[in-house]
Amino acid sequence: MVDFGLSRKLQQGKEYQTYHGGTTFYLPPELLQVQTGISGRQPQQGKMQTKAVDIWAIGIMLYELLAQHHPFISNDVSADISEFEIVQRIVNGEPSELPSHYPDSLKKLIKAMLSKLFN
Question: What's the pTM?
Answer without folding.
Answer: 0.71
